[in-house]
Amino acid sequence: MRAARAKVLPGLLSALTLAALALLTAQAPTAHAATDVGTVAAALRESPVYVDPAASAQLSTADADALAKKIKTADKPVFIAVLPTDFPTQNLFQNLRTSTGITGLYAIRLGDRFDARADSAVMSTTAVQNLVTSVQNEDTTTQLNDFADRALANIGGAAPASWDSGSTDGGGVSTTALVTVGAVAVVGGAGAYTLVRRNKRRKAEEQRAALDKLRVVVDEDITAFGEELDRLDFHPAEAGADDAMRADYERALDAYEQAKSSMAAAQYPQDVRAVTKALEDGRFSLAELAARREGRPVPERRAPCFFDPRHGPSVADATWTPAGGATREVPVCAADRARLADGADPAIREVDTEYGRRPYWDAGPAYGPWAGGYFGGGLLPGLLVGTMLGSMMASPGYAADYGSGYGDFGSAGYAGGDVSGADFDSGDFSGGFGGGGGDFGGGGGDFGGGF
Fold first, then answer.
1. Taking a C-beta distance cutoff of 8 angstroms, is the pair 416, 400 a contact?
2. Largest CA distance in the chain
3. For the chain: N or C, fewer Cβ within 10 A?
4. pLDDT digits (tens, 9 = 90+) for 32-57
5. What is the distance between the terminal CA atoms of the chain, rounded to a whole angstrom?
6. CB-based contacts of 60, cutoff 8 Å, min separation 6
7. In this predicted model, what pLDDT tens digit does every residue of 314-358 receive, in sequence order?
8. Cα separation of 401 and 218, whole Å?
9. Which has the closest alpha carbon to 169: 68, 280, 317?
């Protein structure tokens, strides 16, 4: 019996040893896992900084932790990965953004090379390129901290909710990150929905408050335009009315109805742009109708009066200098042109703020979509330069919260930190891994080309 046991024991120990090694191997990050985009993405969903085990010499655990803490404290969607030189670079940013599924700014230190991409909702392509260029030829720790400091000062949006529950320390792959890889595959869309709820709720509250402010002003605009229609005293069948006049009148009525229905359906501040655009169209139609009835030439299409769009289309540009600001040319109505010529103050549109009545351009970022509908993106930079609204609209924070800056006041898309999954503009992340501002040519927009 003892001899039999002696023969069995070595075999049993060998089997147990092999089983234990297999278990340890299954739990430890393998070389394949460490170089897989899905693993990197899983780690970034838990913490803003990921250091691949094969690149651990580039950034110490202490430095990675400090960098992650800085980004979390700033509450901004900045993602940083430190990867080995031989990490696959084909479609790296696009694949990482798709796998992570979170709107934000993504920076990668790959060997001694550095590059970054961002969703345009949080930072423009030009801004990202400038940031990348500004930190070239620095050592890893200095480069990543300099990049983070400058990015955190300009990026829009907020940190993803998933960072609150993560336990990774920034160096290597945490157990939570590895479990997340499997969990994402199982949970899928339900998990993404859970992650985004808190950020969505906070963003919804901010946008609701901004829309409430706008609603008062826009309702005043709609009422004023309705009163203009009532005072018009035009009848399509009256003597002298022709098809052109009737078409002008019909367009004005349609614009009035469109403005009312658009405001009733508005859910976000940026939706107001469609309302004020309709009112601007309607007022120009009334100006055309008035000219035809009076036998005057039909006026050229001009922007509304800058001081108060309710004054109707402008008739000229006039020089104006705001208090403490630079002189600029602004479109003005006939009455305000006369006031300025006489040295008097124009009739400025003021709105209620926590500091009392203020001109709309000094009343906060919510009025950007309102102004954008009246004046369009092209005019606003020159008109609003140096004002509170102009400064806010030029910032990434404004783009994330209320639209996309001067050129496009946008729709209710994903903001920084939101979980969008694969629903993002791949053009923001296209092209090969670049050389950091020095070589971005060869396709894929500003970030085309590759090594």
1. yes
2. 124
3. N
4. 344 589 999 999 999 999 999 999 99
5. 69
6. 141, 171
7. 999 999 888 777 888 899 999 999 999 999 999 999 998 888 898
8. 19
9. 68
